[in-house]
């Protein structure tokens, strides 16, 4: 909990990440301060500032956690198989086809290792990765550079456009003729999902009004069938620009109004990673065959 409070610097932010009430966070913090006979945070203006006691406690706690992580191979190796659980957060449709190959390679080598893959909302999963509730994320990399405690690798880049079920049109062409499309039915990702954020930002950059007739979804499942039944416009892939192969590079220069989707793997750089999680991470980061 201290680590989450240190990252969020607010009781409300910590409560949101931990999934508990603000009162529960405050109570736990007060109980810790009573136990340690010292203040952990200075409170002012709604912001928490860690005291020297808190900083010292976090440093010692991180060292203990790192030592336990390094010790885990001796504790979990059974018949040459790693044990334990690797927690993976997922919101990357373009990478979905690779998951069976990754999981098969890992389970064939380490049958006792449990792989947990959970579909979720991107920002919440990033917060939970920082809070050590996930080991690895497979997500859109939009804005990942603003998370200094995290590291990432791009695995797949796709140039997207708008499809009406019969043809695909680039986003700049759509915006050039926006009055023709704004009143159509639109099938879009939920607000807060990376591709929706890109779509809204492009419209905003030209001061174009957002469409009002909208169906919002957080999964690509049945999106084609929904489009057929509603005659909606939706975001579709136009061209794969990069796939994690030895002969390709993710450095792609595109016009500023391009609807670009970059999917990849994200992990915490600020803490030691367990041998099991490192095995999964190295399998995912390896070039595609």
TrEMBL record:
GO terms for cellular component: cytosol. Residues 1-51 form the HTH lysR-type domain. InterPro entries: HTH-type_LysR_regulators (IPR050950), LysR_HTH_N (IPR000847), LysR_subst-bd (IPR005119), WH-like_DNA-bd_sf (IPR036388), WH_DNA-bd_sf (IPR036390). Keywords: DNA-binding, Transcription, Transcription regulation. It holds the Pfam family HTH_1. GO terms for molecular function: DNA binding; DNA-binding transcription factor activity. PROSITE patterns: HTH_LYSR. Signal peptide: none annotated. The keyword Phosphoprotein does not apply. Belongs to the LysR transcriptional regulatory family. This is LysR family transcriptional regulator. It comes from Ameyamaea chiangmaiensis.
